[in-house]
Each structure stands twice: as structure tokens, then as C-alpha cells.
């Protein structure tokens, strides 16, 4: 896979090292000479230029890329890079870094963004996930499909503890994707039984009723 990463700061370099370690071809672009720390990711191709400019993207043959990652520290630049990659070069997949969570609403298909990654939001979700039991936490949002990944640690006193997965009627557009028990992921089958302190991961549509899901998991099915 061929990947262009715009932004050669610590985030961009870390992504590049991971991709190179998995055998992918990586080009790093940055307009700041101070970011040209070539020795730290020597296996990558490097270019000192502004990735917001079309000649730069043509120079690195963006039209031949599988993925463009906009990982600069400037949200405006990341949006421009994503839009150019998608509209001018037809890149199949764009991934954009969101620096300010207040700007996250703009990082969608209208700006050519397939996947938006908000580091502050992810860190917040990880903190909440670590300290809460019985609270539904949004871990990640797929901006292209509008699907969410939600997590909840099942309380010991949940009415669903001891109930088989196949007996549970989940809310509409909600899928139980994984059970994590004792640090071991389990692909849930209808015969698996939920246990207190299970970490449950759900994939839901944007229109799904999160309140109903949390109610079901912590208090059981609503009674009419």
C-alpha cells in the first residue's frame, strides 16, 4: 500500500514508522525545515513542501496513492489536504487529524474526509472507559458511514448478567460486536452468556437509541 502523510511532526512520524513496519510505502511531506528529521524515519521518502498546494501533491504522485493522511497540527490545512486528495486526485481513502474537537463537525465527506481522528476525543473516551462501569462511552465514529463504536462495562448487578446473548433483543441498528472478558476478546454467539464486568463493544447507526441501549444493559428491558 502506498501512503502519503502530510505533516512530519511527532504524529506523522509515528504513523510512518508503524506503516513502514508493516511493509507499506510511505512519503512524508512537511513545509517546515525543522520537521525534516529524516534520520528518524530513514526508510520513508521525504519532501520539504506545502501539502496544501497542488504542485506538491502532483510531485509525490498522489493519484497513485491508496491513502492520504493529513496529520498536521493545523485543522484548516488538514481539511484542504483531504479535499484536494479526494477531489483532484481521486484518492480512495483519506484520514485526517482533528486538533481542536470544536472543529470535528467539519471533518466529513463534504471536505473529502473518510476518517477523522480526534486525539483529544479518543483520550477522553479512554479515560471515561477506564473509570466508569455501567456508563455507555462512545469510543469512535466512522465519519463516512456515520456508524459509532460504543463501549459499556456491564455492572455486576445488571439484569443481563447470566443471560444468553440470543435471548436479548437489542435496540434497532445496534449490534453486539465483541465481548472482552479477562482481557480476552470473544466473538459473541447466541449461546454465549453475559457476565458482570464484561466489556461490551457495540457498533451502532447514528440514529440508534443510545439511551435505550444503556437502559437495557443497566436496568434490563423496559416494562410497558
TrEMBL record:
The keyword Transferase does not apply. Coiled coil: none annotated. The lineage of its organism: Bacteria, Bacillati, Actinomycetota, Actinomycetes, Micrococcales. It comes from Cellulomonas terrae. This is Trk system potassium uptake protein TrkA. It holds the Pfam family TrkA_N. Gene3D superfamilies: NAD(P)-binding Rossmann-like Domain, Regulator of K+ conductance, C-terminal domain. InterPro entries: K_uptake_TrkA (IPR006036), NAD(P)-bd_dom_sf (IPR036291), RCK_C (IPR006037), RCK_C_sf (IPR036721), RCK_N (IPR003148), Trk_Ktr_HKT_K-transport (IPR050721). Keywords: Ion transport, NAD, Potassium, Potassium transport, Transport. GO terms for cellular component: plasma membrane. SUPFAM superfamilies: NAD(P)-binding Rossmann-fold domains, TrkA C-terminal domain-like. PANTHER family: POTASSIUM CHANNEL PROTEIN 2-RELATED-RELATED, TRK SYSTEM POTASSIUM UPTAKE PROTEIN TRKA. The keyword Transport applies. Residues 137-219 form the RCK C-terminal domain. Residues 1-117 form the RCK N-terminal domain.
